[in-house]
Amino acid sequence: MSPTTTLLLSLLATQASAHTFIWGVFVNGIDQGTSYGIRTPAYNAAARKGGYNNSPVKDLNSIDMRCNVLGDIPAHNTIKVNPGDNLTFDWHHEIRNDTDDIIAESHHGPSLIYISPDPPTQNSFVKLWHQGKFQTNPFPQPGKWSTTADIKKHFGHMHVRIPAGLKAGPYLIRAEMIGLHEGEVSYLENARRGAQFYPDCVQIEVMGDGDVELPSGVGFPGAYSYEDPGVVHNIYCSTETRKPKTSTTPCATDYIIPGPTVWSGAWPETTAVSVGPVKGATTATPWSTWIGTDSVVTSVTYRDVRSQTIVGSSVYTPSWSEVYATPTATAERW
Ligand SMILES: *[C@@H]1O[C@H](CO)[C@@H](O)[C@H](O)[C@H]1NC(C)=O
Ligand SMILES: *[C@@H]1O[C@H](CO)[C@@H](O)[C@H](O)[C@H]1NC(C)=O
To answer: Which InterPro entries match (predicted)?
Structure first.
C-alpha cells in the first residue's frame, strides 16, 4: 500500500454471497492474460479459499461503486485497443475455466458497461451497453435476466465493442453485474438486504486517430439511487409463493435498468465473438498477498451481516488521482 493509505485490521464476519469479477479480457477473441489490465477487486470480508473475493457493494454512496474495493489502485498494465475492436470480459467466481459457476443461480439482475476517460470524474462515465430482463414475466417465473440467463450461461462472457472513431487515450471501462435477489428492499432500509453490485474496471488505451470525444456522463458513486425502480425491485413478486416478507415495494413486472440511457455513439449491436484459449493462471493469487493484510473496508462503516453491529470503520481511504498516471511494473496491485 502507498504510505498515504491507512489500513486498519478488523475482525469481519464473512458474508454469504456469491462473488464474481473479471479474470481476463479477450480482444477480438484473443486473451490478454489473466488479470492483465484489470483492477481486480479485494473485498469487504475475510479471505477465504485463498482467492479474491469481493463482497458485493451495496452502499450506493460508497466510492466502491466506482471500481469496487481498492478500485483506485491501478493495474500494472493497460490493454491496447482500436475503435471497432470487440472486447469480451471473462467473469468468474472461483476459477477461470468453464466449470466455474460464474455467479450464483439466484443472482438475477441486469448487466451494464460504461466507459470513462482515465482518471474518471464525477460525471465521466458513459453507458455503452446494458441488458436487463429479456421478457415480461411469464407468471409465475421471475423472468429471464442478463446475469443468470446470459452471462452465466455463456461461461461468464460479456461483450462490448470500442466505439467507432473514439479519440485515442487512456480510458477505464466499468463493467457491472447487479444481483437483485435481495433487492426487494433498499439497503438503506435494511442493511442485511438490498441490491448487490459487482462493478469491475479495466484499463484500456485507445489507439488510432479518432476524433470522437465522450459526452459528459454520470459519476460513481452518484449514478444510482435508492429511489431507482431498477435498484429496489422485487424479482419474485410475480411468484406470490416466494414473495419475501420484507418487501416494501409494489410489484412491477417490467424492469427499468438503472443509470442513464446508452450513449448514441455506442455500437447498436453487441456481437458475441468466439474466443480463443485462456492465457495465464486459472486460479487467483490470494488478494491478501498484494493487500498485505487480512481484510480491508472502504465503506465508512461496516456492519456485521447478522448482528448489525458496526465492526469496522474508515479503514482504507481510497485516493483517486485527478491526473493520469502511466501504469508501471511497480504499481501496487499484483
Ligand atoms: C467486431 O465484430 C463485428 C461483428 O461481428 C465485426 O464486423 C468486426 O469486424 C469485429 N471487429 C474486429 C476488429 O474484428
Ligand atoms: C476446471 O477446474 C476444475 C477445478 O480445479 C477442474 O476439476 C477441471 O478439470 C478444470 N477443467 C478444465 C477444462 O480445465
So the answer is: AA9 (IPR049892), AA9_LPMO (IPR005103)
The Cα 6–Cα 4 span in angstroms is 6
Higher pLDDT, 49 or 145: 145
Q: What are phi and psi of 128, to 5 degrees?
A: -100, -25
Mutating to test ligand 1, I would choose from 86, 129, 159 the residue with most ligand atoms within 8 A of its C-beta, which is 86
Which residues line ligand 2 at a C-beta cut-off of 6 Å?
A: 95, 97-99
Per mean pLDDT, which of 38-47, 133-142, 181-190, 221-230 is the most reliable? 221-230
Ligand 2 atom showing the smallest separation from residue 95 Cα? 2
Residue 28: all three cell numbers together: 477480438
Cell 442513464 locates to 260
Beta carbon of 86 within 6 Å of any ligand 1 atom = yes
Give strand ranges (E) for the chain: 21-27, 30-31, 79-81, 86-92, 111-117, 126-131, 157-161, 169-179, 196-206, 301-303, 310-313
Which band of pLDDT confidence, cut at 50, 70 and 90, is reported for residue 330?
low
Task: Read off the pTM.
Answer: 0.87
